[in-house]
Specification:
Elements (H helix, E strand, L loop, with lengths): L1 H4 L4 H7 L3 H30 L6 H43 L2 H8 L4 H42 L4 H15 L2 E10 L4 E8 L12 E2 L5 H7 L4 E3 L19 E8 L2 E10 L8 H45 L6 H16 L3 H13 L9 H4 L7 H7 L2 H9 L9 H6 L20 H15 L11 H10 L6 H14 L1
Antiparallel strand pairs: 1-2, 1-6, 2-3, 4-5, 5-6
Helix pairs in contact: 3-4, 4-6, 6-7, 7-9, 10-11, 10-16, 10-18, 16-17
């Protein structure tokens, strides 16, 4: 019994939980029932007596029933309408959290609650549709960014590619026009242009270094520990390229590593009358900080790689110096490789690769016994087996060093011949890369034009004839280019 009395009757609960339309229908029927009963009473009286007799008592009873029905109906309908008004107020409060103040004021001024409620739901629907579109755009942008980040991570050996990725990403994320990175040279007191994105420079135009006197605005920014937003450009940014980045509002943040400035990162707004909010400014500063760390790590990595290369080069030179007949061979081969490369119009990266590989190509001779290296006569078969191992030994030494792996092909294969008669792998034709073919020619030419224990050096003309006689063992087109470069150097 106690449990039953704690719950409302099922009928009452079903009415309260019913829709507004159902409540209205039930209440309308209840309000109409009393008048209909009174009319039915008079109708029945007329049918039975042939006339309608209204006594004072019957009139009072009918009036009381009608009045009670109206009061009950009014109270019930008012309760339904009040719930509708409460729903409208609740929706208005919810709208204040998702709509603009102007839109909320417009809806609040509507006198008709039903209309206001309908407009409220329409406004919410429109906002949801905008959010869906925004989420779709964000998803697409995020996909593009992640694709670019993945590409950037796979090319982390090139810091410039990674910095360009960072600038392009922040420009898109913060509705920017252009991004700029300047590195600070403390000794020279100047900012050096490193990377720009979003705004193209004039063809052939180079950005010069920006002086940073102690009393300049730029020096003040470098000393700060956070980003700053500016509306007007500095005098230091008056070059025809840099001033494009500071024509409107722009954020300027120092690139800090252990609280020391390494440079500046700048982002200009695409709208001359636009602005950056606090979240955007904080995001920009966080990204600038990470960029500074990436640049510092790149510098440290480059320094380590340079030290590795110089150490191994010194080792190769030490091996080269052990043989009085081939002393200076590495430098001469490097010179000939560069001559051929320039004659062919190769780019700077290929020229550097050839120069570096030439300095290391005989590094493996460190593993060859001195009695074989310095033997005064021709080598026997057993000694040749040992000598032919030096390309493999050289590759083994440099292969663990990531920054030198691109030299492995040249170090290992500089004794290969196009007809497959070379060593250590007996490569043929297209299996031998163009850079290896260049080094092979330069190596053979220097060997022919220097004294050996078993013969005197050949003249330049005779050495070139020997290169021609080797026929399909060498790339004769490259031999022609080498000859042209030699003639041009005379």
């Amino acid at each position: 019994m106690t449990e039953q009395s704690s719950h409302k009757p099922h009928f009452t609960g079903s009415i309260e939980n019913a829709s507004i339309m159902r409540k209205f229908t039930v209440l309308f029927l209840l309000m109409s029932l009393v008048p209909m009963l009174v009319l039915f009473y008079f109708y029945w009286d007329f049918r039975t007596q042939g006339k309608i007799v209204i006594t004072e008592t019957s009139f009072n009873v009918a009036l009381i029933f009608i009045a009670c029905g109206v009061i009950i109906g009014y109270a019930s309908m008012r309760r339904v309408v009040q719930s509708l008004i409460d729903l409208n107020k609740a929706s208005t409060k919810a709208l204040q959290r998702v709509l603009t103040p102007e839109k909320v004021t417009e809806l609040a001024g509507e006198q008709n609650e039903i209309t206001a409620l309908a407009q409220s739901f329409q406004a919410i629907t429109e906002r949801l549709e905008d959010n869906v579109r925004s989420l779709e755009l964000t998803k697409k942008t995020l996909h593009e960014v992640m694709t670019r980040v993945g590409h950037g991570i796979s090319n982390m050996q090139n810091i410039d590619s990674f910095l360009e990725l960072i600038l392009e990403t922040i420009i898109k994320a913060l509705n920017g026009k252009g991004g700029l990175i300047l590195l600070y040279n403390r000794e020279e007191k100047e900012l050096v242009f490193k990377m720009a994105s979003g705004i193209q420079s004039d063809p052939g135009y180079k950005v010069g270094a920006i002086r940073v006197p102690d009393d300049s605005r730029l020096k003040e920014i470098l000393k700060t520990k956070g980003p700053r937003v500016f509306l007007e450009p500095f005098p230091e940014f008056q070059s025809r390229y840099l001033k494009k980045f500071v024509e409107g509002p722009f954020i300027c943040s120092p690139l800090l590593v252990r609280e020391k400035p390494k440079g500046l990162m700048i982002l200009s707004h695409s709208d001359p009358s636009g602005t950056f909010d606090n979240d955007e400014i904080n995001l920009f500063f966080n990204l600038a900080t990470q960029t500074a760390v990436a640049i510092e790590n790149s510098v440290l990595s480059h320094d380590i790689e340079t030290t590795y290369f110089e150490t191994i080069s010194a080792l190769a030179l030490a091996v080269d110096a052990k043989d009085r007949y081939s002393r200076g061979h590495l430098d001469r081969v490097a010179k000939y490789c560069v001559m051929i490369a320039k004659q062919l119009g190769l780019d700077d990266d290929d020229i550097k690769t050839l120069r570096d590989a030439a300095r290391l190509h005989d590094l493996g001779k460190i593993g060859i016994p001195d009695e074989v290296l310095n033997k005064p006569g021709p080598l026997n078969d057993q000694e040749w087996v040992l000598m032919k191992r030096h390309p493999e030994i050289g590759e083994t030494i440099i292969k663990p060093i990531t920054s030198l792996r691109h030299l492995c092909d040249l170090v290992r294969h500089h004794h290969e011949k196009l007809d497959g008669s070379g060593y250590p792998d007996g490569l043929k034709g297209e299996e031998i890369t163009p850079l290896v073919r260049i080094m092979t020619i330069a190596d053979i030419y220097d060997a022919l034009t220097t004294d050996r224990p078993y013969r005197d050096r050949l003249s330049n003309e005779t050495a070139i004839e020997e290169l021609r006689k080797m026929g399909d063992k060498l790339d004769q087109d490259l031999v022609d280019s080498f000859v042209e470069s030699l003639e041009g150097s005379d």
